[in-house]
User: Which sequence fits this backbone?
């Protein structure tokens, strides 16, 4: 177990990064347990097989991590309704394989002494006991809940006569509400991401390539101890600024163009999602500033409207109405047709975090506000994206330390 303890100590020692403790994961399982009145929840953790792991290393499936905090491959989770007035949950771990550990490093096993300490589970069993434990619990409960097509196939093969229901909405409702510990981790990811954007602003200049800006940004958050990009960096200059999910980052930028940077870090498992658009090597042109002002106005209108009880879909309507009534294209038509995506999504362990869209905004949610206008015929693409915490009375701008006003941006750029 020594290597596992050393890993946990290393994670905790990273500046400003500390994963939630076992009690937080235990509380999440307890809350879920209370919602399972007629069935058992089965989740399968990620495995260490596959091309993605070769490219990026192993990362746990986010729903599994949310409920367990467990970062090793091949685990399984079973949660039932409370038994004897106590939440009931079992973690299943594969046995250690010393030959493989020569390549991968030591893993925890179900037979390790005091295994409940690093896992936070009172009951830890080998994975080969999973089927027996499942059928034992199905003697008491009629239904199985799980997430994902592959998981559904697996549980139906083990219990072909039982109803299998999706657990995604149930877990999403839990994940949408961020605990104080999660809010602190999200703020840490935001702060590191803002540092990355400032580094990009200092470096951006005519003649550089988009990938050089992306590399400067990644250097910042990897140097801060963050594990990976929250998503593939989007760094688009000139015509590429009008492509929503442009990720080739291969073009050479020229003076006077716009540079759109949608880049976020993932730190201690939690994602940030921030976008800024700046001029390259010059002040904003009159037309660029005009369009920028419309986008900023739409963003401010949305942020001002955020409050508990508001449907998430209403935010896009507010942005579109503002854009349509405050700007025109070169033909005198409203700009709304150039606003081609939703304005908001939840953020957490995933950049597009688990969401039950039937639920309105609530205190403790963390969402983006990201209006944009993309006009290919003018080579103008402008998006401003910030992260917002929904509070009891409205909204808190988590990423407000990075300028949004065009004059403040020019000042920061030395224009």
Assistant:
């Amino acid at each position: 177990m020594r290597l596992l303890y050393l890993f946990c100590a290393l994670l905790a020692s990273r500046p400003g990064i500390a994963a939630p403790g076992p009690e937080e994961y235990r509380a999440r399982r307890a809350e879920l347990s209370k919602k399972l009145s007629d069935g058992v929840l089965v989740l399968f953790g990620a495995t260490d097989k596959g091309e993605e792991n070769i490219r990026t290393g192993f990362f746990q499936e986010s729903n599994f991590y949310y409920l367990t905090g467990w970062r090793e491959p091949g685990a399984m989770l079973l949660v039932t309704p409370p038994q004897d007035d106590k939440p009931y949950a079992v973690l299943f771990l594969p046995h250690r394989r010393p030959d493989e550990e020569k390549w991968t490093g030591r893993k925890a096993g179900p037979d390790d002494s005091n295994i409940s300490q690093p896992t936070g589970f009172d009951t830890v069993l080998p994975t080969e006991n999973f089927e027996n434990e499942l059928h034992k619990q199905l003697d008491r409960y009629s239904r199985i809940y799980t997430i994902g097509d592959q998981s559904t196939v697996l549980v139906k093969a083990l219990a072909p006569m039982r109803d299998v229901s999706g657990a995604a909405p149930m877990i999403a409702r839990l994940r949408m509400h961020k605990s104080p510990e999660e809010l602190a981790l999200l703020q840490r990811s935001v702060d590191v991401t803002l540092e990355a954007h400032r580094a990009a602003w200092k470096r951006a200049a005519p003649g550089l390539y988009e990938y050089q800006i992306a590399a400067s940004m990644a250097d910042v958050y990897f140097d801060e101890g963050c594990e990976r990009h929250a998503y593939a960096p989007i760094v688009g200059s000139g015509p590429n600024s009008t492509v929503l999910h442009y990720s080739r980052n291969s073009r050479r930028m020229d003076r006077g163009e716009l540079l759109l940077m949608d880049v976020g870090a993932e730190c201690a498992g939690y994602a940030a999602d921030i976008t800024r658009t700046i001029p390259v090597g010059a002040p904003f042109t009159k037309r660029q500033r005009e369009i920028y002002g419309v986008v900023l106005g739409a963003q401010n209108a949305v942020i001002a409207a955020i409050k508990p009880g508001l449907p998430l879909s209403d935010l896009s309507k507010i942005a579109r109405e503002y854009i349509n009534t405050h700007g025109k294209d070169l033909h005198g038509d409203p700009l709304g047709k150039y606003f081609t995506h939703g304005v908001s999504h939840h953020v957490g362990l995933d950049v597009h975090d688990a969401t039950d869209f039937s639920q309105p905004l609530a205190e403790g949610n963390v969402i983006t506000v990201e209006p944009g206008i993309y006009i290919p015929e003018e080579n103008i693409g402008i998006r401003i994206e910030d992260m917002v915490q929904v509070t009891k009375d409205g909204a808190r701008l988590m990423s407000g330390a990075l300028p949004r006003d065009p004059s403040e941006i020019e000042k920061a750029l030395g224009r």
Summary: The two ends are 56 Å apart (CA to CA).
